[in-house]
Write a structure and sequence with these properties.
The complex is a heterodimer of chains A (about 400) and B (about 270).
Chain A (H helix, E strand, L loop, with lengths): L8 E9 L6 H10 L17 E2 L18 H12 L1 H11 L4 E6 L5 H14 L8 H5 L3 H10 L5 E4 L5 H15 L4 E8 L3 H9 L20 E2 L1 E8 L6 E10 L12 H14 L8 E3 L6 H15 L4 E3 L2 H4 L6 H15 L1 E2 L15 E2 L4 E2 L4 E8 L3 E9 L2
Parallel strand pairs in A: 2-6, 3-4, 3-5, 9-10, 9-14, 10-12
Antiparallel strand pairs in A: 1-7, 1-8, 5-7, 8-15, 11-13, 14-15
Helix pairs in contact in A: 2-6, 9-10
Chain B lengths: L7 E9 L7 H6 L1 E2 L10 H6 L2 H17 L8 E4 L5 H11 L8 H5 L5 H10 L5 E5 L4 H15 L3 E8 L15 E9 L8 E9 L14 H9 L6 E4 L7 E8 L15 E2 L2
Parallel strand pairs in B: 3-4, 3-5
Antiparallel strand pairs in B: 1-6, 1-7, 2-10, 5-6, 7-9, 8-9
The chains are: A alpha/beta (about 400), B alpha+beta (about 270).
C-alpha cells in the first residue's frame, strides 16, 4: 500500500544550471525560446558528438573546503548560492538537524579521478590534495552542501544512474513522512567526463550530433552536465507541490528498457496512485526521451497505454543533453515551470517526428494551463522512477 | 507511522567479512564467514560479476534464506560508499591505455546500481530498489531509508551494505578488506521469530564511534550484526567520529545466528 500524498509537500525553492544557462532564469528563458544548448565537447574526443556543457565558469570552493574541490562540488556550491536565502530560512525555521540533504549523482568525482589516475601513471604519485573520500567519493557533495548550508539532518547520495534524481523525491517524501526531517534539499548533479562519453560511445548509443528525442532519425543520446537543487518542506509556500512518486524495476536488461515499457508504465501508475490522480488529470508529461531508438519507442508505448494521445508530451534533452543522474532534477524544474507559467516547451529534436511514435508531442512552445505534470526517468539496470507535481492549492 | 515509534525485527542476516575482527560475543562464538558463494546469479553472470556484486549476492542470499523470505517480492536497499571500484579502476586503466577505448560491458557494469540491476534481472524482482552512498555513514543512512520505507510503504525490506577492498592505487593509506552485511527487516507485530529487535534509530548528542583509516566504510554494519549475538541489549553507534551520532538500540531475541532452523544459512562456527 503506497502512502497517499494527496496534499503533497511544497517545493519552496529551486535552482538549476546546465547548457542553457548558469542561472535558473537563464535556463528557463532558453527553454522558452526553444534554443538548444548542445554544442562541441570542451575537450578532445576520438569521435564526433554534441554535448551540453555549462556555458560559464565555476568559481572554486571556499578555502575551508578546498580538499573537496571538484567540478561536481563546484556546481553544487553554485546552485546552493542561488538558494542561500531560502535554505537559511528553512534552517532557521526547522532547525539544522531537521533539514536533510539527498542528492543524486552518477559521476561524483570521477572527472577528478580520471586526471589523478593519469598523473599517477605518469609520475608514480597522486596529485597533491587528491583524496578518495573527499575528491572521488559520492558523499563529498553532501559534505560540501552541509558545510555551505548548515543543514545537519540525514544526508546521502542516491546513485541509480539516470533515474537517480527522480528517486531523490521518493526518498525525500519518505523522510518527511517518517519524521526524520521537516525539510529536504534534493537534487542531482553530474559533470561531463571522458569515462561517460567514451562509455556511451562504446555502447553504440551516443549520437554523433545533437540528439533527436522521438525524432524519426534519432540515433542516440547527447550527454550533458549541470544540476538542480530543490527544497521540499513539510509546509510552506512554493510554485508547486510534490504529489506522488512511483519506483519500479524492469528486471529485463542492464541497458535496454523493457520493449513495451512495462516497468516504466508501472512506475507512472504508482506515481499517479500516490498522487490520487487519474491519468486524465495529468496535463503534461516530461518524458525521459533520451533519443535512443529503444528508449523512446518503449517509453512512448508506455505513455500511450496509460494516457492515450490526449496528454502533450515533451522531451527536453534536446536542449540540455542527457545529464544522467542530474537529468530528472533539472526536468523537475522544467515541470514546475510548466505549472507555474502555464507553458509547455517544444519537444526539441522531434523534427520530423518518428511516425511510429503516436503520443502527442509538443511541436511548439505552447501556452497551456497545467495543474499536474508527470516527469519520467529510466535508467541502466532497469531502474524506473516517475514523479507527479501539482499546482499549489 | 513516525519512525520514532518504529520497532523492527531482524529476520535474517548475511555477512562476508574476511580479515575483519568481530567484536564482542561474536568473536567468542568464532563465527566464520570468509567464503564467498552464491547461486543468486546464473553461472555466466557470476563469472563476469564484480567482487562487489558477488558480495551483495552472497549476503542477500544468506539473509533471505535465514528469513524464509521471497526475494521476488522484496524491496531492497543497497548501500556502498564507493560502489563498483574494481570495475571503475579497470575503466581508468583502459582510458589511459592505447586509444582509450572502453569496454562496453565494463562501462555498463560500472554504475552504482549494477548489483541491484543484475540481481533484479536474475531473480525477476520488479520491486522498489535503491542504491545509496554516504561515505562512512552509509550503513546509518541505509537504515534511515529502511525505517522510512517500513514506516510508509510495507512490512519487509532488505538492507545490504558492502564495500570492496580499499583501492590502494587511489588511497594508499586505506588498506581495508572487503566487507558485506545484510539485514532482512520487518515491522514488529507479525509474531515471527527474529534474531534481534531494533528500535530508537536516530541521532543523539555526542560524538560518533571510533574510526581508523583502515576501516571499511561498512564496518558499522558488522558492529550491528555482532550486537545481535551479544547477550544483552545495547546501543550501536552507526557512524564514525562526527558531531552527529546516529545509533540504534539492539535487543537480541531468542533466535541465535546459525541456529535458525531455516535452511541455507552458510555462516558456520569455527572448529
Amino acid at each position: 500500500m503506497l502512502p497517499s500524498m494527496h496534499a503533497g509537500y511544497p517545493v519552496t525553492a529551486r535552482a538549476a544550471c546546465n547548457a542553457l544557462g548558469m542561472t535558473t532564469e537563464a535556463v528557463l528563458a532558453g527553454l522558452c525560446a526553444g534554443q538548444t544548448g548542445l554544442g562541441p565537447a570542451p575537450f578532445e574526443l576520438p569521435f564526433a558528438t554534441a554535448v551540453g556543457a555549462l556555458p560559464g565558469p565555476l568559481p572554486p570552493l571556499p578555502v575551508s573546503l578546498s580538499e573537496f574541490d571538484t567540478r561536481l562540488t563546484r556546481i553544487a556550491a553554485w546552485l546552493a548560492a542561488e538558494l542561500r536565502i531560502p535554505l537559511g530560512r528553512a534552517i532557521a525555521a526547522w532547525g539544522a538537524p531537521r533539514v536533510a540533504i539527498v542528492i543524486a549523482s552518477s559521476t561524483a568525482g570521477i572527472g577528478a579521478t580520471e586526471h589523478a589516475f593519469g598523473v599517477r601513471l605518469a609520475t608514480g604519485s597522486l596529485p597533491a590534495g587528491y583524496s578518495l573520500s573527499r575528491t572521488h567519493s559520492f558523499q563529498a557533495v553532501v559534505e560540501v552542501l552541509r558545510a555551505l548550508s548548515g543543514a545537519r539532518g540525514p544526508g546521502y547520495v542516491v546513485s541509480t544512474a539516470c533515474s537517480s534524481s527522480n528517486k531523490v523525491f521518493g526518498a525525500a517524501q519518505r523522510l518527511l513522512s517518517a519524521g526524520f526531517a521537516d525539510a529536504v534539499l534534493v537534487g542531482g548533479i553530474d559533470t561531463l567526463c571522458q569515462t561517460t562519453l567514451r562509455g556511451f560511445h562504446s555502447l553504440g548509443i551516443l549520437s554523433s550530433q545533437a540528439c533527436r528525442p522521438f525524432g524519426r532519425d534519432r540515433d542516440g543520446v547527447s550527454i550533458g552536465e549541470g544540476g538542480a537543487l530543490l527544497l521540499l518542506e513539510r509546509h510552506g509556500e512554493g510554485p508547486a507541490r510534490l504529489l506522488g512518486v512511483g519506483e519500479t524495476s524492469d528486471a529485463h536488461h542492464m541497458t535496454q528498457p523493457h520493449p513495451e515499457g512495462a516497468g516504466a508504465r508501472a512506475a507512472m501508475e504508482l506515481a499517479l496512485s500516490a498522487a490520487a490522480l487519474s491519468p486524465g488529470e495529468i496535463d503534461h508529461v516530461n518524458a525521459h526521451g533520451t533519443g535512443t531508438p529503444l528508449n523512446d519507442t518503449s517509453e512512448a508505448l508506455a505513455i500511450l497505454g496509460l494516457f492515450g494521445v490526449e496528454v502533450p508530451v515533451a522531451s527536453t534533452k534536446g536542449y540540455t543533453g542527457h545529464m544522467l543522474g542530474a537529468a530528472a532534477a533539472v526536468e523537475a524544474v522544467f515541470a514546475i515551470d510548466a505549472i507555474e507559467q502555464g507553458r509547455l516547451p517544444l519537444s526539441l529534436g522531434a523534427d520530423p517526428p518518428d511516425p511510429a511514435i503516436r503520443v502527442q508531442l509538443t511541436r511548439a512552445s505552447t501556452a497551456q494551463r497545467c495543474r499536474h505534470v508527470l516527469s519520467n526517468a529510466f535508467a541502466f539496470g532497469g531502474s524506473n522512477a516517475a514523479v507527479v507535481f501539482g499546482a499549489s492549492a | 507511522m513516525s519512525a520514532d515509534a518504529l520497532i523492527v525485527e531482524v529476520l535474517g542476516v548475511g555477512s562476508f567479512s574476511p580479515g575483519h575482527v568481530w567484536p564482542g560475543a561474536a568473536a567468542a562464538a568464532g563465527l566464520v564467514d570468509a567464503t564467498l558463494a552464491t547461486s543468486l546469479l546464473p553461472l555466466r553472470a557470476r563469472g563476469r560479476a564484480s567482487p562487489l556484486t558477488l558480495m551483495f549476492a552472497h549476503v542477500i542470499e544468506q539473509a533471505v534464506a535465514q528469513a524464509g523470505a521471497d526475494i521476488h517480492s522484496l524491496p531492497i536497499i543497497y548501500g556502498s560508499a564507493y560502489g563498483e571500484m574494481t570495475t571503475t579502476l579497470r575503466l581508468l586503466e583502459m582510458l589511459h591505455a592505447g586509444d582509450g577505448r572502453l569496454s562496453p560491458a565494463r562501462f555498463q557494469a560500472s554504475v552504482h546500481n549494477t548489483a541491484a540491476g543484475q540481481i533484479s534481472i536474475a531473480q525477476g524482482n520488479r520491486c522498489f530498489t535503491t542504491s545509496l552512498a554516504a561515505g562512512h555513514e552509509t550503513v546509518a543512512m541505509c537504515l534511515v531509508e529502511a525505517w522510512s520505507w517500513l514506516a510508509s510503504h510495507g512490512e519487509q525490506v532488505l538492507v545490504v551494505c558492502a564495500d570492496e577492498q580499499a583501492p590502494s592505487v587511489l588511497e594508499p593509506s586505506a588498506g581495508y578488506e572487503p566487507l558485506a552485511v545484510a539485514f532482512l527487516l520487518e515491522r514488529t507485530g507479525r509474531g515471527r521469530r527474529s534474531l534481534a529487535r531494533l528500535s530508537a534509530l536516530g541521532t543523539r548528542p555526542g560524538l560518533g564511534g571510533p574510526r581508523a583509516p583502515s576501516d571499511n566504510p561498512c564496518l558499522p554494519g558488522l558492529r550491528l550484526l555482532a550486537a545481535m549475538v551479544d547477550p544483552g541489549p545495547q546501543d550501536v553507534i552507526l557512524n564514525p567520529v562526527s558531531d552527529l551520532r546516529w545509533q540504534v538500540h539492539v535487543q537480541p531475541t531468542a533466535l541465535v545466528p546459525g541456529n535458525s532452523g531455516a535452511s541455507g544459512n552458510s555462516r558456520s562456527e569455527s572448529p
